[in-house]
Structure formats: structure tokens, C-alpha cells
Amino acid sequence: MKASIGDLARKYRWQFSGMVAWAIQRVTGLLLLFYLLLHVHTVSKLGEGPVAFNEAIATFRSPFFKLLEIALLGTVVLHALNGIRITLVDLGVGVGQQRHLFWVLTLGIGLLVFLAGAIPMFLFGVLKG
Amino acid sequence: MARNAVHWYLQRITGALLLVLLSAHFWVVHFMTAPVRRGELTYEIVVARVSNPVWQVIDISFLLVALYHGLSGLRGIVFDYGPFGKWAVGSINFALTLVGIAWAWWGIAAFRHL
Amino acid sequence: MELNITVRLARHPAREGRRFSEFAVTLEERMTVLDALFRVQRGMDSSVGFRCACRVGMCGTCAVLINRVPRLACSTPVKGLGSDVVTIEPLPGYPVIKDVAVSLAPFFDQWRRALPAFRPKDRDAPALARIPRDSPFGRLAGPKRDCITCGACHAACSITGTNAAYLGPAAINKALLRLLDPRDAASGDRLKILDSQTSGVWRCHTQFNCTAVCPRGINLTESIGQVKRALLRPRKAFQA
What we know:
Chain B is an all-alpha fold. Chain B contains five helices and no strands. Chain B has a single domain (about 5-110), classed as 3 helical TM bundles of succinate and fumarate reductases (Up-down Bundle).
């Protein structure tokens, strides 16, 4: 039986870390697909000659886009580490400690890797530009 | 191995490949040579790199792997909103394959005009 | 001093345009949510509809949504909820018959699809096949046998909510028990059903909602993972 919208709203509970992880994977995946679309669009400007391409690239030098780049890094890190966590669970590794896998691996290590990239990007990209 | 198990494997394999390719790509585009380290990413600099067929092969492979992983993931999302009969599944597969081919063509086209 | 709790009960059909009826119930020693429901039914509104049978957590009949989480009403102490408002709603994803009593038809439809019945390899065996608790099958199956078909896991999973064809954790767990059983002959048929891209184990995204709400503490996500691993292996016959 198909659930009604009310049923679905009740189901998307945020009490369980597994549910949050699933939602993160879905959202980051879609965002990255959208980013790929934009990226291919920009690279395709190569075929239109130097003026068109350099113009397109110039828009990405603004601090706003540099910030978006940092957000992109965060998106990739979350998606990759969560993907590793899902694969581990599927393979039966750490199923009893899946909450720890999420908080420590995905978010904890994710935060470290993100900061390792984001801080230099921020200092040299956003602040300098 | 069951018939649909291959999708599980391919998603993980392409995922791992993407991690490697993405890191390499990021390094190449932002750190490999002095100009890009300075933040200059102009037409001339990009064309200088992608005129080399080796880079073309690497970049196109990267795109194809990313497209497989992304569209296969999108297929998973669609299947979560079932039920779907055989005909619907076939149509979804066909549509996503078409999108993938068109998208790849669009991506590769940039290199062909150089 | 008497402590009062508020029981908010979902009504179906709605009463006077209001989806919830509220009742003030005196909190008693070791009161469970089911006890509170009986207080309401016997002393305040005899028309409230809810289900129960054994009242000791063995039959699975009284599964409802308590403060947004699927639980057995008879096994949920009111004090443990940490709130003096107890909101009771029907399990999501099932057709509501009356108030918080639902039809488990969608649950059992999937249950049946996974071929839960035992198909013996040797129909003419004269002796009973004994499964000692410490045998390989006994050890693997032990923690998975406790399912009381309460429907909580199926209700908690967000994939069953958006995909009416998905088998769901309980059906897959039952299929796993049969797959693990060395006496059973229908592995091939079951694995084909479980391998379905649109309705089989590949729809599971390890949300762990099912495991979190199972009143018997079965790690259902792990059960589904066992089936996934069997499908991923190159061998044709099932191996745990």
C-alpha cells in the first residue's frame, strides 16, 4: 500500500543515525550530479574559443564561487566516506557498531579531511581573491 | 554471483576509481604547474594540457566513470519509488543510458574541437 | 501527589473534525502504554480502537507508533518515554481499520512473496531432522528466529513507505532463515526473488530503522546484509 504524504513525513524521522546517513548520501549524490552538469557545460566552452572559455572561467574566481568550491569539497568528502561506511556495513563489518561508524568515520574523519582542504582553500582562495 | 549483484560491485569499483581520479584531477588542475598554482586557468593553459592525447584519455575516462556512478546511483533512487514492472524497468534503464550517452558525447565534444 | 499523563490518541475516522482525542490518565506504578490505553477505554471512552492479545511482548499484536517510534504498547513503560504526553498513532504505511488498529495485509503480502514456507529436501525421511542449538545452523539461526511479525520494522523502513513492492526486513529475515536451513530445498527460488533490483535486498540502504525498532532485538539490517553477501558471492548454492 502506498503511504500518504503524512505517513511519509512521519517516516522520515531523524532519530536514527542510519536515516541521516542515507539522506546525506542521497542529497550529496544529487548535488554532485548537478555539479557534473555545470562542469561539463563549462568545459564545453573550450570549443567556443578563448574568449568564451576565459569569460566562463573568470566568473569562478569570485570569493562566492571559491566558497562554493569549499562546499563542493565537503560534499565529496561526505559522499565518499559515507559510501565507504555503507560498503562496510553491506560486507558485515562493524554492523554492531554502525552508529560509531557513522559518527567517527563519516563525520569525524570527514571533518578532518574537509578542514585539511578547506582551510588552505579559504585562506588562499577566498581571502586573497 | 546473482544477476543484479554486478551493480553493487560496479558502484563500489567506480566509487573507488573516482576517489583516485578526482584527487589526481584536482592536483593537476590546481597544483601541477606554476601557473595553475597561481590560480591562472586560461584557455591557453587548459588547451596546452588537453591537446595531449594521454590527458584526453584520462579526462574522458574520468567523465565516463563519473557518469556511470552518478546515473547508476540515480537509477537506485528511482527504484526506491516503485513498484515497477518489467516494462517500466526497461524504460528507466533505456532513458538513463540515453542520458548517459548524450552527456558523455557533450563532454567529449569539447576535446574534438581543439 | 498524583501525576497525570496526557494520552493523545489518533482517531480514525476523525472525531468532530479532530484527528486526536486527548485523555488525562493517572500515572500508575509500572504503567505501560497498553495499560494507559485500557484506562482510557474502560473509564473514559469505550469507543477507542486498539489491538492487543498476550500483553507480555510475545505476540506482536499491539505494535503502534508511540511518540513517533514504532513500539509494542504492552512493553513500553510510560515512565521510560521521558515525556508526560504519550502520542499514540497507527503504524505508518498500513491501512487503518479504526483509530490505531491497522491491517497488516501489506506486511503479510511481502512475507508470502519471500516463500516463508519450509520445503523439505527429503520428503520421505523417516526420522525427524534435529537441529542442535550449537550446530552451525542452530548458532546462525538462533538470533534471527525471534520475529513475532509485529510489523514495526516494515513500518519504520522508509523504502517500504515509498516502494510498495519492496519485500521489507521481516520477509527478508524469514527468507534468510530458510536459506540457512540445511534441510530446505527452495534456496534457488528464494534467491531469485531476493535478487530483484526493484523489490529485493538491493533496495536496502542500511538505514537501520528496522533494527532500531525491532522489539525482539533482531539485527535485521545484518540479516539483509547476509543475503546480499550470498548474492555477491560467485557460488550458486547459498552459504552463510
